[in-house]
Design a protein that fits this description.
This protein is mainly alpha-helical. It has 26 helices and no strands. The longest helix is centred in the N-terminal third of the chain and has 32 residues.
Length: 741
């Protein structure tokens, strides 16, 4: 059960965020309840505790403390201005717009600027929500101060979270998700034998497991700098995580291929809706299938069993048997495709061994077989090479002026908020601020008009459902103050726990919570909640209008920019891997591959408006999904090439092959040509055609002897990469022409 929880919430980040916020609010309510403050101030304290907790997102505890300390005077100034200006309509509205602009512009200064901007805006909103008056300011100062103190106690005393602890939980999540992926691969052995419909479900499990493992790897990448002991440890862990991810994904592909009489395209693992390859079942006998199932279960056991829980010789015997499949003489008698599965099993076992050493430290070597000893020697040589390498990063220049995303967003949200204030005042002179809040929120973490439209739609749907829940709960709770506060705490936890999963669910819990707060303030009525829906719709509409009219960033433009970024990074990784594999100088290819993965994640998020079910353009939706799936396929093969290239310096059995330079040149050229066409459709760059790289795998076509199966594997990855890159030309509308060279 713990593994399932760790896998569903990597690093327990959502659980911690929800519990910490609830704890801060509960402490604040307890302190203020003992002091006997009125209900309106209890509500203000609860809201202040919530914002002072969730606004701070820095990873280092010292930085969090500084931001929290700076946030208190910002909050006190904000509530003072909100209270004093609430009676001066024009001046108050103008200041609110200026405050919104500054809060959004503050995102330029990183996590601290973002946090202080959030605190300033939300506390100003708090003063409007509780209808604060100047005479109540001294009491509000005390309430907000108590809320910040309770937030600090929850963060630094009761629910402490260190970067190292978060990284450790993320590693546990990676291990749990890797175990789940192997379990899905075991299901694949029998998928479709009795129920053809079950085969599609198993493939979806396999696809989801692969994507979730990749997500965990990216989350670890984002925490390595702060959570690792030193830079060398960070690089080692990064490499071991990458090895395990690549080996497990390759094992899944080999299993898919073994199920079919034909080669399985890597796209099967990345394109939603793709079906299992024809064939129905593994083309091997029951005995071999049983051996394969047994060894996959053994691999899963190696992944999930920490060193401290491994006793006796059984686990070492399992490990030795799996690593033995790296030797040709230990492979079972079976078809070539099935033997490839066992080879992949051996490589996955080696990656898991490296991961266990990186996560759990040195292990007992007394029962090692020669195959296991060789694997350890390879890992030790890699560790030494990683520790001696140096990382050289170049910072990309930041856009200036109105081209800077934070400046553009600040101008857009200021204009949208002005429209929301004007329209909100027409709907209600008392609660116009709901429209402004919605307009503000739809701009957070969005960068294009399409993203804002989808976010506004989701918020509206969640709000409508939350209004219904709020009406029901208000009738049930009535005037039971502490029961209502208990439900508020429950909804706050649910809000933060579901926020990364579903913006609609988060909006539902927010609205239901607000219905309870209105009940506590004795301002509840069904018409108030209906007004909230109207104000929400107005705020979302104002946000979309501002994004579409003021310095607009069209979804097509943003996706094209991100697509070019992905292609540039794909070319960089592929070129670096080919140079190194053909005898060129070494480079930090794992970091480049992770940059590619992050760029691809950004593109995937930006295409959500195109792939969302509400999108009426079905052909564009299918095209966007297909392009992203092809790019994920390209990224997988580029990662695999980079991982193989980094083995050259430490493995005497792997040699550089100069023929690979020519094989990869055309691929890199075509990637760059596609990027040029996306940037400028009038580009004259040509997509080159040529002989299949697979022909280099045919016997008798090579003038020099091959360097064993490593060169075969590299050529196969190059062939798949070439096919995927060529496949991009059709959905992107690029004409392929034969090369004249």
């Amino acid at each position: 059960m713990w593994d399932r929880l760790a896998a569903s919430d990597p690093g327990l980040l959502r659980l911690t965020a929800g519990l910490r916020t609830v704890t801060a609010i509960a402490l604040t309510l307890a302190v203020l309840g003992v002091l006997g403050v009125p209900v309106a101030q209890l509500v203000a304290g609860a809201m202040a505790a919530m914002v002072s907790t969730f606004a701070i997102q820095e990873k280092q505890r010292s930085q969090q403390a500084v931001t929290l300390a700076l946030g208190l005077p910002v909050a006190l100034a904000s509530v003072s201005l909100g209270t004093l200006l609430s009676q001066r309509v024009v001046v108050g509205d103008l200041f609110f717009v200026v405050l919104i602009f500054c809060a959004v512009y503050g995102r330029r200064f990183g996590d601290r600027g973002t946090a202080l901007g959030l605190i300033g805006f939300q506390v100003y909103f708090l003063s409007l929500f509780v209808h604060a008056v100047p005479s109540a300011l001294p009491a509000l100062y005390g309430v907000i101060t108590a809320a910040f103190v309770c937030s600090a106690a929850a963060r630094f005393v009761l629910l402490r979270q260190t970067p190292a602890g978060t990284l450790d939980r993320l590693r546990r999540a990676f291990r749990a998700r890797l175990g789940q992926l192997i379990a899905a691969q075991i299901e694949l052995l029998d998928a479709g034998r009795e129920d053809p419909d079950a085969a599609a479900k198993v493939l979806e499990h396999l696809r989801t497991g692969t994507a979730r493992l990749h997500e965990s790897a990216l989350m670890i990448q984002g925490r390595l700098e702060d959570g690792a002991v030193d830079e060398a440890t960070a690089r080692l862990l990064q490499r071991r995580i990458a090895d395990a991810e690549i080996a497990s994904e390759r094992l899944g592909l080999l299993l898919l291929t073994a199920r079919s009489a034909e080669r399985t395209d890597t796209l099967t693992l990345h394109l939603p809706g793709a079906s299992l390859p024809p064939g129905g079942e593994l083309p091997i006998g029951d005995e071999a299938t049983a051996v394969l199932r047994r060894d996959l279960e053994a691999l899963r056991l190696l992944v999930l069993r920490p060193v401290g829980e491994a006793s006796g010789t059984a686990l070492s015997q399992v490990r030795n048997r799996l690593l033995g499949y790296r030797e040709e003489e230990n492979l079972p008698k079976a078809s070539p495709a099935v033997q490839d599965v066992f080879r992949g099993l051996g490589e996955a076992a080696r990656a898991v061994l490296g991961l266990r050493i990186a996560l759990d430290g040195p292990q007992d070597e007394s029962d090692d077989t020669p195959a296991t000893a060789r694997s350890r020697e390879e890992l030790d040589a890699e560790d030494a090479a990683i520790e001696s390498s140096e990382e050289d990063e170049a910072e990309e220049p930041e856009p200036a002026g109105l081209q800077r995303p934070t400046t553009r967003a600040a101008v857009q949200v200021a204009v949208g908020s002005s429209l929301a204030i004007a329209g909100g005042e027409l709907l209600s002179s008392q609660r116009w601020y709901w429209a402004v809040l919605t307009c503000w929120i739809v701009f957070i973490n969005t960068a294009s008009t399409g993203e804002i439209l989808v976010k506004g739609y989701r918020r509206l749907v969640g709000t409508v459902l939350g209004v219904v829940a709020g009406i029901v709960l208000a009738g049930l709770v009535g005037q039971h103050t502490w029961t209502a506060f208990a439900l508020v705490l429950l909804f706050v936890f649910a809000m933060f726990y579901t926020a990364p999963l579903s913006y609609t669910l988060m909006s539902f819990f927010v609205t239901a919570m607000l219905g309870l707060l209105y009940t506590l303030l004795n301002t509840y009525s069904a018409s108030v909640l209906v007004l909230r829906v109207e104000e929400t719709a107005l705020g979302a509409a104002c946000g979309v209008i501002a994004a579409a009219v003021v310095l607009p960033v069209r979804t097509d433009r943003r996706t094209n920019d991100l697509l070019v970024d992905v292609l540039d990074k794909l070319a960089d990784v592929s070129r670096g891997a080919m140079d190194q594999l053909s005898g060129g100088p070494s480079a930090d290819l794992v970091d480049r591959a992770r940059d590619l993965d992050q760029a691809l994640a950004d593109l995937r998020a930006a295409t959500q408006p195109l792939t969302h079910p509400i999108s009426p353009l079905r052909s564009r939706r299918d095209t966007a999904r297909y392009v992203v799936a092809l790019l994920e396929t390209c990224a997988y093969h580029a990662r695999s090439l980079a991982a193989t290239a980094e083995l050259l310096a430490t493995h005497p059995s792997i040699a550089a092959d100069p023929r690979l330079r020519g094989a990869g040149r055309r691929i890199v050229h075509n990637i760059e040509a596609i990027a040029a066409h996306v940037t400028d459709p009038r580009s004259t760059e040509r997509i080159e055609s040529g002989p299949s790289i697979a022909s280099m795998l045919e016997p008798g076509t090579l003038r020099t002897p091959r360097y064993g199966r490593v060169t075969d594997r590299v050529l196969r990855h190059l062939q798949r990469l070439d096919e995927a890159v060529s496949g991009l030309t059709r959905p992107l509308g690029i004409t392929r022409e034969p090369s004249r060279k």
